[in-house]
Specification:
heterodimer, A: about 210 residues, rod-shaped, B: alpha+beta, five-stranded antiparallel beta sheet
Chain lengths: ~210, ~200
């Protein structure tokens, strides 16, 4: 059975427009409602974030206050560091001459004796780099030297002496400056020689860079 | 009713939504983002501060040792030249190593280039046996006062440095050393301003 709408077409059209308008308005209101909900959500997030920030800033302020109360210990540490740097600068390239004399007594051959022994370390100025042989390493940096004068029976004794000198850690470039026989065929030689000291010959505190 | 009514309603709704988003939602989102950034920065700072606090608490725990180390360094490099104590230390070292303390010539204190300390280059001469002077050198190296031997010469007693002697047998040797002592007083020695330099911050 078919239905017959007896309303005039203008009325039907008006109803359709009203429905469409209502629908559009409803959708608009729904979108606005969603925007409102999202806005409220953002407000809550902001409130939470501000609350967290205030709490965090309060914790930080407490820590800063604790740090300020302990500042004297930081100053103490800084004072120690500065004094240690001073000690490092003072003792740079220090050689233990007592150890050096012991080493001499260990390596000197029986058939010889010394009449003179000298040693010196190269004066260093802050920031100045000590002599380093061409192609050398920091360990081979020369920091001083030693010289010897003595008397030896046979040239072989002198050869043994300079060989043994090179066996001591940090003693390098052992060199004989002169070896002269005291009298013809006496085989007793007066000699003078020297060597260079490298960074390895320095004491532990003397090896620390300032 | 106007046929354009739905279109007008849609435009109005879109306009209101657009204004709501741009005037309310987006600024609020920006505020949230800024606050979160500030919060993150504050949290990062807390880590830094906590690490700093831990370091300071460690420094506080180590303060007695630190003070002892500073006192030891102050004794090694005193704020004044303090020659009397130097004399006593050298005489004590000579006595303990059984050498004869022959001469002591302290040089005029010279400030270093950095202006942090003065060095007193001194000549010390002692005489004794080989191992006695070795012991004296060891005691010199381990004095409570910082000392660095820069040159030394060991000769048979009676000979002067650089002079070759023909002595063949002697147990008595002479040791001449140049030894540097130090003070943080930058104006020390004859003609200087009495007392420690003010930059040391410590009293004599």
């Amino acid at each position: 059975m078919s239905q017959v709408n007896l309303l005039p077409p203008e009325l039907r059209e008006r109803q359709a427009i009203r429905r469409t308008t209502s629908l559009v308005a409803a959708v608009g209101l729904a979108v606005l409602a969603l925007i409102g909900i999202f806005y409220v959500f953002q407000v809550q997030r902001l409130s939470q974030a501000q609350s967290d920030l205030e709490a965090q800033q309060s914790r930080n302020a407490r820590l800063e206050s604790q740090i300020a109360s302990l500042q004297e210990f930081a100053d103490l540490q800084a004072e120690l560091a500065s004094k240690e740097a001073l000690v490092g600068e003072i003792f740079v390239n220090e050689v233990s001459w007592s150890s050096a004399l012991l080493d001499v007594s260990r390596v000197i051959p029986d058939a010889s004796y010394l009449t003179n022994l000298t040693g010196q370390i190269t004066p260093t100025v802050a920031g100045e780099v000590a002599t380093e042989p061409t192609g050398g390493t920091p360990e081979s940096t020369l920091i001083g030297n030693m010289t010897f004068a003595g008397v030896a029976n046979q040239t072989e004794t002198i050869a043994t002496w300079i060989t043994r000198l090179e066996e001591v850690q940090g003693w390098v470039n052992a060199w004989v400056n002169s070896a002269q026989e005291d009298a013809p065929f006496s085989r007793i030689y007066t000699f003078s020689n020297g060597l260079d000291l490298t960074k390895e010959a320095a004491t532990v505190r003397g090896q620390v860079a300032p | 009713m106007n046929r354009r009514a739905p279109i007008i309603a849609g435009v109005i709704a879109a306009l209101v939504a657009f204004l709501a988003v741009f005037l309310l939602v987006l600024p609020k989102m920006g505020e949230v983002s800024t606050t979160n950034d500030e919060l993150q920065a504050a949290e990062d700072r807390e880590f830094t501060l906590a690490a700093q606090l831990n370091a300071l608490q460690d420094a506080q725990a180590a303060a007695p040792e630190t003070e002892q180390e500073i006192a030891a360094i102050d004794a090694a490099i005193p704020p004044v030249a303090d020659l009397p104590s130097l004399f006593r230390l050298l005489q004590g070292a000579a006595d303990r190593s059984a050498v004869d303390f022959f001469s002591f010539t302290p040089g005029t204190p010279v400030p270093n280039a950095g202006g942090t300390y003065s060095s007193i280059a001194s000549q010390v001469t002692v005489s004794g046996g080989y191992f006695a002077i070795d012991q004296f050198l060891f005691l010199l190296e381990t004095l409570p006062r910082a000392a660095k031997v820069t040159t030394l010469a060991v000769t048979p007693s009676g000979a002067t440095t650089g002079e070759t002697t023909t002595t063949t047998s002697t147990s008595n040797l002479q040791l001449q050393v140049t030894v540097e002592f130090y003070t943080t007083d930058l104006s020390a020695g004859p003609g200087s301003i009495p007392g420690p330099s003010e930059i040391t911050g410590t009293g004599a």
